[in-house]
Write a structure and sequence with these properties.
- The protein is mostly helical and 160 residues long.
- The protein has one domain.
- The protein is 81% helix and 0% strand.
- It is built from six helices and no strands.
- The radius of gyration is 22 Å and the shape is elongated.
- The termini are far apart.
- 11% of the residues are buried.
Length: 160
């Protein structure tokens, strides 16, 4: 006979970890907030979030490939500690850009937002503006930094 699962096993432990401080009232407020959020989100707003998510996903793919490429090229190009430091610095910059892309993809809805006096429509608008500007910044940084990496490779190959 199978023993019933305890909250400390498997997926039940994960659910318990995310909701361990939530009482029944908090769960109810969160559910109502989700309904209010979905009601306030228009088709245009939803489409704007979807477009930003798609663009951020594509940018994150490029950034991930650049990190992998730099990691593979490091032993081939780096013949001196300065070259190694340059490549590690390039990887660090791409990792920071990746964090920005992940923030663009994140769903930000906390209990503090639910209990705030700000309307759901204002929260959606603020979140859309934040994601749009962060994506714009990450995109520009990626373009310029990819040019820097492209120019640095021949320099490292010619380095004595």
């Amino acid at each position: 006979m199978a023993e019933p699962r305890k909250p400390t096993d498997g997926i039940h432990a994960l659910v318990a970890a995310f909701t361990n401080r939530w009482d029944a009232e908090t769960v109810d407020v969160f559910a109502r907030s989700l309904q209010s959020h979905d009601h306030e989100e228009t088709i245009a707003t939803s489409a704007a979030f979807q477009v930003l998510d798609t663009k951020a996903s594509g940018l994150l793919t490029h950034v991930s490939m650049m990190i992998a490429g730099l990691g593979i090229c490091a032993p081939l190009l780096a013949q001196h500690w300065i070259e190694e430091a340059v490549i590690v610095g390039e990887i660090v910059v791409y990792l920071v850009i990746a964090v920005g892309c992940l923030r663009c993809l994140s769903v930000v809805r906390t209990l503090a937002d639910i209990n705030s006096s700000e309307s759901p429509k204002m929260r959606l608008q603020r979140e859309l503006i934040i994601k749009h500007q962060l994506y714009r910044l990450c995109n520009q940084a990626t373009i310029y930094f990819t040019i820097v990496v492209f120019v640095s490779f021949p320099i490292m190959l010619m380095w004595p």
